[in-house]
Design brief:
- There is one protein chain.
- The chain is mostly beta strands.
- It is built from no helices and 11 strands.
- It has strands at 3-7, 10-13, 18-25, 33-39, 46-51, 57-59, 67-72, 77-82, 91-99, 104-107, 111-116.
């Protein structure tokens, strides 16, 4: 069974930091691009950051310079270091694993991040 399990969410004061983790099982982790997406109430799910198996990264403009995505293939785990958090970062953060040829797309259950003023 494929599982993506997020952890590390919580409540933090504005300007603080959190580190999210996503541990994958049931997939060949190295074959997948990984990413973090978030969804706030009443808003569409939006990509936050992605990282390929080779380590190439991409970030939403809103988080550039504040968030860092990384992966540890030996641990089948992806991370999102979030610094200088703002109230507008409040959302449920989802882990995503995606590959092509053949195509597969898997999601975690999400972890809540709440940033207070």
């Amino acid at each position: 069974q494929v599982q993506l399990v997020e952890s590390g969410g919580g409540l933090v004061q504005g300007g603080g930091s959190l580190r999210l983790s996503c541990e994958a099982s049931g997939i060949t982790f190295e074959a997948y691009s990984m990413g973090w997406l978030r969804q706030a109430p009443g808003k569409q799910r939006e990509p936050v950051a992605t990282i390929t198996s080779g380590g190439s990264t991409n970030y939403a403009d809103s988080v550039k310079g504040r968030f860092t995505i990384s992966r540890d293939n030996a641990k089948n785990t992806m991370y999102l270091q979030m610094n200088s958090l703002k109230p507008e970062d409040t959302a449920v953060y989802y882990c995503n694993a995606r590959r092509y040829r053949p195509s597969f797309d898997f999601w975690g259950q999400g972890t809540q991040v709440t940033v207070s003023s």
